[in-house]
Amino acid sequence: MISFLDLKKINQHYETAFQEKLKSVLENGWYILGNEIKAFEGNFAEYTNSKYCIGVGNGLDAITLSLLAYIENGNLQKGDEVIVPANTYIASILGILHAGLVPVLVEPDLETFNIDPNLIEEKITSKTKVILIVHLYGQLADMDAIIEIGLKHNLLIVEDCAQAHGLEFKGSHTRTFSFYPGKNLGALGDGGAVVTNDEKLVATLRKIRNYGSEKKYHNESIGFNSRLDELQAAFLNCKLKNLNEDNEKRRFVANRYLSEIKNDKIILPKCTDIKSHVFHLFVIRSKERDRLQDYLAKNNIETLIHYPVPPHKQKALSDWNNLSFPISEQIHDEVLSLPMSPVLTDDEIDKVVKLVNMY
């Protein structure tokens, strides 16, 4: 079986470094908000060309706490509206809801899967205060157009970069990351981070992630317990050094898929500039998606669907179930993610291409 993503093989490369880090953390005896997270926050801020990085518990918390920090700082207030792609993973929307804000869904571009800038302005009202961008599957959204809209309407831009580690970003917006194990930069457990140049936001985020406290046992606000732990920070520091190399390997796999898959029943993703994509996922579309997936499984190729149910059709968001977002619904009915990782071999890529073309 060709695995969709072989995490064991990916992390075996770091086994010696992980063992050394584990020993160091155990000997140090400091497990929360110590030197390892300080080192990772500094390294990841530098890597993302940002002044600050704040490690948090996971990617959902990164979104939620960023928005709550903006509220505490007076940039937003409860009930404000946030523009968000209709076809994103539900975490993007949950972060908005947990912060007491109102998600406003906007359809994506069918070819890129990212939010369609041409549809944003018609959804802007007097209550709209934020555009939450999602660089879905690892492809940079149309930031030039989005930044122009943000400036025109005086909107905050926050970027959900959970699938976009290593992109060359535009502008200096607040960005949220997930280090879920399957990400391009993945921990061995959960983790997340916020990067920003906003010093006031950083101070508030550091407080909110730690029970609303700057000084132990003195709580200034209603905070959370959401801190990237020392061990995960140490592991992430090991892997960060190879992130660019790993992304280049993903681009190599994607280039082969893009140039060699030739099947009228398959729609390949649109990618005008491969440097603007880090290929967290390689997502094709097919009208016969379920049958194609079954065919590949029978031929020992594992694929996944990202995602089978759009957010507005989820039971958790039942108030939205009667809404219609036909482009998002089409995407969720047709997408299939092929194996994609930096450890795929040439023989494995050959087999995937051959079988997809034979379908």
* Largest beta-sheet characterization: 7 strands, mixed
Name of the CATH first level of the largest domain: Alpha Beta
Strand content: 5-15%
Number of helices: 12
Task: Specify the CATH homologous superfamily of the largest domain.
Answer: Type I PLP-dependent aspartate aminotransferase-like (Major domain)
Query: Considering DSSP H and I runs of 4 or more, what fraction of the residues is helical?
Result: 25-40%
Number of DSSP strand runs? 11
H/E series, N to C? HHHEHEHEEHEEEHEEHHEHHEH
Which regions have little confidence, pLDDT < 50, spanning 5+ residues? Answer: none
Shape: globular
Mean pLDDT: 97
Distance between the termini: 18 Å
Class by SSE composition: alpha/beta
- What name is given to the CATH topology of the largest domain? Aspartate Aminotransferase, domain 2
For the record, the CATH architecture of the largest domain stands as: 3-Layer(aba) Sandwich
Tally of structural domains: 2
Adjacency order of strands in the biggest sheet: 1-7-6-5-4-2-3
Measured on Cα atoms, how large is the radius of gyration? 21 Å
